[in-house]
Each structure stands twice: as C-alpha cells, then as structure tokens.
Amino acid sequence: FDTLDDLDIAGRRVLVRVDLNVPRDGAHVRETARIERIRDTIEELAGQGAKVVLLSHFDRPKGKVVPEMSLRHILSAMEDCLGRRIAFCPESVGPTAEEAVAALPPGEILLLENLRFHAEEEANDPGFADALARLGDVYVNDAFSAAHRAHASTAALAERLPAAAGRLMEAELRAVIGALEHPQRPLMALVGGAKVSTKLAVLSHLVRKVDRLVIGGGMANTFLYAQGHDIGRSLCERDMADTAREILANADAAGCRILLPVDAVVATEFAPGAASHAVALDAVPADAMILDIGPQSVAALKAELAEVKTLVWNGPLGAFEVPPFDTGTNAVAAEAASLTRAGRLQSIAGGGDTLAALAAAGAADDFTYLSTAGGAFLEWLEGRELPGIAALAAARARNS
Ligand code: 3PG
After folding, report:
1. Catalytic amino acids?
2. How many angstroms separate the Cα of 109 from the Cα of each of 14, 40, 76, 134?
3. Chain-centre distance of CA 348, in angstroms?
4. Closest Cα to atom 2, ligand 1: which residue?
5. How many angstroms separate the alpha carbon of residue 223 from the centre of ligand 1?
6. Does the structure's ipTM exceed the value 0.95?
7. Ligand 1 nearest-atom number relative to CA 375
8. pLDDT of residue 267
9. What residues bind substrate, as annotated (predicted)?
10. Low-confidence ranges of the chain (pLDDT < 70)
C-alpha cells in the first residue's frame, strides 16, 4: 500500500480515518493512546499545508443520533493531547460538513461527527462513501484498530480517492507483520483470556506460526480438563475439550510447543484479597477455582522467555483485574519488560485488557510495540484479511 510519502498533499483536503473510540467517563478520556498516536500523521499533513479532516466512529450508536456518543465530548481531550485547536462539525456528510471543510484554513484540523450516527457507515454504503468522498481530495487510513471493519470510511471510501496508510497504520503493520511473518526466532505467543471459544481461531492459526504457544487465563483450564486434570469449580468450557485436544495435536504436528500451567493459584471465592494458595495440578480441591498460574508456572515461563527472541502477547494469564490474581501476569510481564529493556527480546502486545494488564504491571513502557488495536489485533492473529488493509492494497494496485 501507499504511504504519506506517495501522496501529493499541499493545499489539498485530506480525509483521515482515525479511531477515536477511546474509553471515556463523561468528558474525561481514561486512555489517550489512540489520540496521541495519530499525532505524527496529523502534524505531518498539517505541516504540509493540508486541510486535515478527521473521520471516526465512537461506540456503537447503531445508525441513530445518540447525543452521549457525539465526538464533541472528546474534543477538548484531543486538543489537550495534541496541543492544537481542532474545529468540530456536528455533521459527518452533507452541506454543513462541506461548508465546514471549505471554511477550514490550510494547516488546520477539522473533526466531523460520529460516522456511526449514519447506518450507511456500517453498511459500507456506496452513496455514503460518495458523500464522504465529496469532502476530500485524498484519503488516509490511520485506524488499524478499525481495519477489521468493512465500513464506508474504511473500505468503500478508499475506492473513491487516492488512498494511503497514515504513519500509525504503517507502524502498526510493520510491528504485527514483522512479529508473525518474519520474526526473529524462536517466536513465542502468549494467549490468555477467559474462553477457548472466543480465541479458537487465534490458537488454531498461531500453532502454525509460532515456536512456542503459552495458553493462560480461563482458557488454560479447558486444556487442563481436556488432559484429564481435576479442575474443581474452575471456569471451563467442557464442550470444548475435543477441540482443545485437536489444537494440542495440531501443535505437535506443526512443531509448536504448547506451554500450559504446571501449577495453579486457587481460591474458593473470586473477590479482592480472597484467601488463596498455590497447588500442584493434581491437588486442586473440588470446591476451589483456578484463578491464576502458580509460582512454578511463573518460573517455567521466565525460563522459556529467556530463550525466545520474539514475544506476541494477547490476554492475561489469570484473573488479573482482581488482586492477588494478577500476580502471575505481573511477574511474567515484568520479566518480558526487563528482557526487552536489555535488548534480548522483541515484545509486541495488543488488546485493551492486555494493555491494561501490562500497564498495571508497570511493564507497558518497556514493550517494543503496543498496538492500539483490540478486535483488529485478534483478527490479525487469526490470520484473517482485514478489509481496511485490503482496501489500501487494492487502491495501490489501481493506481500503479
Ligand atoms: C475498537 O475499539 O476495537 C474499534 O474502534 C472497533 O470498534 P467496534 O468493535 O465497535 O467496531
């Protein structure tokens, strides 16, 4: 795909698809990474004298105007983060939006209203894409985290204007493509989370790509159950046991070593500060739940980490949001951070929960790359083609 280097920008109206779907309480944006990380693209375009028009969705208003989901509410957080004034237009298309773009001086930024107030956005509607295309001369997609959606602003619009990836999109793709397609090996993936059923496609794809696959979180219980362990009252998808055995067999055939917990931290209630203790896997009490990996598992993972060159992390190892069940995740995250700092590991992580867990562990700043994507990162790990990326590739093929 093309990048900003390939576009003729000066004095032109540039439609930039960004992802401003940030966690927010009222006017307070809790996590500003998605705003901060579009700075390079915006500054570069504005610096070249473009009229920068930002397009984004926020939340899931389902085609209705939902005032609490207006992008107006994050405007001041954006101005604070980016350190510049941003104009706002209460429409996303039509005469009001066209006038706002026309009135925008070169080098300035305009944010249009939540695209999902129009049902046509999620429908990838050609007419809506035409209406968006009338607002710009060129199109830049800087929203890797929305690239798994085939929506008008991520797909159809790219067919209508000269199109390129923004700097954040470029960085995201370089990091994720580098990690899975030409990594320094050994390559380890660490996949946690509650359910095998939601990450089945990720696990199936990764066993064919990585050298070692760590399975953690509630998912690990299903694998332990499938191997015949007694897991008491632990979260487990018993109907996924055959699938789990199949994944283990496929990993074996592909030469991927699966690393499951070798001990566990158990408790009889899931509450902050609940009494808990570590047990061997053959000693999980019938009335207890596995809520974290145990100290031997942590030691084993640290030893494995010391041997690998690349780590891709998605999902916590235990019920990290309720201490003390964050202990295993914190310890492994701290080790990955320290190996990265020492230049011995390339570490890439993605997913809202994962980034929150790494931040809580004090490990986030040391990771080589943190993706701003949640769902799109997972779909990438599933080996799926992302419509937003495919649209950029098609635009390049069309132009050359
Ligand atoms: C995200 O937050 O992962 C993206 O903004 C996509 O949001 P969506 O899941 O509502 O499409």
Report:
1. 34, 195, 352, 375
2. 10, 13, 13, 17
3. 11
4. 21
5. 29
6. yes
7. 3
8. 98
9. 19-21, 34, 57-60, 116, 149
10. none
User: Tokens standing for 331?
Assistant: 């310890």
Please identify, by atom number, the ligand 1 atom nearest to the C-alpha of residue 57: 5
Strand bridging mode 289-293 / 310-314? unpaired
What domains, with CATH codes, occur in the chain?
Answer: 4-166+385-399 (3.40.50.1260), 183-367 (3.40.50.1260)
CA of 232 to the centre of ligand 1 (A): 36
- To test ligand 1's pocket by mutation, which of 121, 145, 151 has the most ligand atoms within 8 angstroms of CB? 145
Residue 58 assigned as binding residue: yes
Q: How far does the centroid of ligand 1 lie from the alpha carbon of residue 19, in Å?
A: 8
Q: How far is the CA of 58 from the centre of ligand 1 (A)?
A: 8
Amino acid at 347: S
Task: Decide if 372 contacts 399 (C-beta within 8 A).
Answer: no
Token pair in block for residue 191: 């996949």
Joined tokens for residue 45: 């375009």
Predicted structure pTM score: 0.95
Report the C-alpha gap between 311 and 338 in whole angstroms.
13
DSSP count for the chain of H helices, then E strands:
15, 17
Does 320 appear as a known binding residue?
A: no
What does the pLDDT look like over 86-120, one tens digit per residue?
Answer: 999 999 999 999 999 999 999 999 999 999 999 99
Tokens of 2: 């093309």
Q: Is 354 annotated as a binding residue?
A: yes
Residue 273: predicted pLDDT: 87
